[in-house]
Amino acid sequence: MMEGLALARMGVAVLGTLAATYYDLRNNRTVPDWLTFGMVAAGVLAFAVAPPVENALQIGGVVVLVGLLGFLLYRMGQIGGADVLLFVAIGLLIPEAPEGVLASGRGILEMPFIISLFLVSGMLFAAFTITRYAYPALEAVRKGRIRLAREEKVQAVVICLLVVWLFWLFQAGGVPGSYVLLLLFVVLTLLFFTLFKKYIAEEFFITWVGVKEIDEEDVLAVDEMNEEHVKKYGLVRLLTKKEIERLKKLPMKKYPVYKNLPAFTPYILMALALSLIFGDLMRFLLMS
Asked: Which residue of 7, 115, 137, 207 is most buried, as measured by CB atoms within 10 A?
């Protein structure tokens, strides 16, 4: 009975995330509320009927914290509202990591499954983003189209020093190699986005449009606007219906808006699919 319920919860999570990914990719980055809120409702019901045998309060608290963190990122325009609801739903539907076909018991890091899923989704997103935009960014450097500010150069030097330190740790044998490789990936990702985030945003994502072309939950690129105008009119990143109506009354004709942001749901789906194979993904990656 319990095994059947666990499979049903897993099925709802996987099929729901698959459907959300379809809508995200095919419906102009718009996932229906009935799908995401329906998944959350199913998760709440499942968690209430059959909570984890151990640490139910702890896991429930972590899911709430992930939801709150996700909501803050959503309000900052860093992640979609549907993505936040997906994480909450999955955390409730799958409170503990799946067994995994190739799961390993050698991992030495323990964390709630939703945290592992959140981190791996972000890592997959970062890896694909770097793969997609590294070449055009390096070409822009070669052609002199990217001029780094002094602050960015200092940050890049600090990050490079961290890379050297990580290699030293690896050589000294003081830290397991899996930890060093993961930290190296994080540091190199930080270096890439420090150097090229502005270029990538301006070249591929930001479009100057009139108010009529702005959609609800679009993200306003306030960093590209006159700082005095941003403060004077109290402009915010996340554009709700109320904010869009307010923009119509302002004297500005066009606004820089992130119109071509990549979907994040495919990376949640990939992380979830990988968890069915490897179990707790972070535990698998950080093997001793």
From this structure: 137
> Nearest Cα to 70, choosing from 58, 84, 85, 50?
84
Rounding to the nearest 10 degrees, give the CA dihedral for residues 254, 82, 34, 1.
170
d(CA 29, CA 16): 16
Give the orientation angle of helix 177-200 with respect to helix 150-172, to 10 degrees: 170
Which of 43, 52, 38, 59 has the alpha carbon at shortest distance from 9? Answer: 43
d(CA 77, CA 98): 31
Spell out the per-residue pLDDT of the chain, length 288, in tens: 457 777 888 889 999 999 999 998 887 778 899 999 999 999 999 888 877 767 778 888 888 898 898 889 888 888 888 999 999 999 999 888 777 666 555 445 567 788 889 889 999 999 999 999 999 988 888 888 877 777 777 877 887 787 777 777 776 666 666 777 777 788 888 888 888 888 898 899 999 999 888 888 888 998 888 888 888 888 888 888 889 988 888 888 899 999 878 889 999 999 999 888 887 777 777 665
pTM over 0.90: no
Spatial separation of the C-alpha atoms in residues 255 and 35, rounded to whole Å: 31
3-state helix vs strand vs coil in the chain, percent to 5: 70, 5, 25
Query: Edge-to-edge strand order for the sheet containing 218-220?
Result: 206-209, 255-258, 218-220, 238-239
- The C-alpha R_g of the chain, in whole angstroms, comes to 21
Q: Which residues contact 182 (CB under 8 A, 6 or more apart)?
A: 285, 286
